[in-house]
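Suppose you are handed only these lines of text.
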Amino acid sequence: MKPLPTSPTTKYVPGRSIAEISEQYNIPADAIIKLGSNENPLGPAPSAVRAIIKHANNVSIYPDSDASALCDALSGYTGYPGANIVASAGMDGVIDTMMRMLMPGEAIIPVPTFSYYGITARTHHGTPVFVSRDENFGLDPQAILSQVTNETRVIFLCSPNNPSGNLVSESDLRTILAGCGDCNGCDGCGAVVFLDEAYIEFSERSMIHLVREYDNLMVGRTLSKAFGLAGLRVGYAVMPEKMRDEYLRYATPFSVSSLATAAGIAALGDDAHLKQSVKLVRDGRKVLMEIPFKVYPSEANFVLVDVSPHQSGEVCELLAREGIIVRDCSSFRDAGDTLVRVSVGTPEQNERVVEAFSEFKSCNVATL
Ligand SMILES: Cc1ncc(COP(=O)(O)O)c(C=O)c1O
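From them, the structure of the protein bound to pyridoxal-5'-phosphate can be written out as follows.
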């Protein structure tokens, strides 16, 4: 094999796994609390599990290439016709296809945020252009628009933002959508604004209605969070019909498996599970606000904690020794080294994590 060129990027850093912590600290796997990857503490909807079992015997048959039955169910959920919807293997799959369509070129990314945006820009031979957020992780639309050039293909906005949990306001989004419409995006429709609403069910302020108004808005969503299907990999996006036609030319066929399709359709029809997941998160968020450090208000299924004057790595390691996995945010660009992201868990897990932070604080208070 010819030597491969040096990779243009660093590898995505995922949250730590139960197996890793169990082995490292010799803790039984079932005693570990995993609050580092923003997963659903309720698990999947039982109707989704039944659908997987029911369809298991058919996996010798290819699924529908465009996941049209799943898109029909998503149409019922979002209120958009199937002609505006695509599905893929997780929202990561949607982002990847979009970048295949739009790159090379520049991708504007307000940081800190979900690190896969920058990785996928580079792996598709594009250039990420990072713009700083303010001290409360708010956006500066003018600073973003000042970076738009003829090479700009996409602006990534995450709402609620991972890892900070705050939303993009409608007025900021409109300013950005209107301000970047004149440069080169796909097929002359302006740079695409990709609005990532992975966590939107935990908030009340989706901006998906704006897809009807703007020809350069794509809204990404996922069934990994509120619907509890992270392990199956189901993501989707809503976008103008013209953009979707172009997107489908770049999409990997059969990217949503038949089991993911069946489970996705069942989960989308299970309103009780969705409501219960959302309530669990909204109630649990309030409990996590009691962590005795600065906790940023969040509209997502996690909170961001500033553990200053301690280092995030040190705090995460100490909690891991206690069997609690939380996310050290130092691998997020521009996040510094004192931020820890904690996913909302079950009521018992939330209590335990608050206690662990409190113990850490009281043990260290003498040394501050
Ligand atoms: C902001 C954000 N977008 C997208 C994703 C990826 O979602 P999926 O599991 O659908 O690929 C994540 C995963 O954690 C995320 O935090």
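What can we learn from it? The chain has two domains: 18-43+272-367, 46-268. The longest helix spans residues 271-288.
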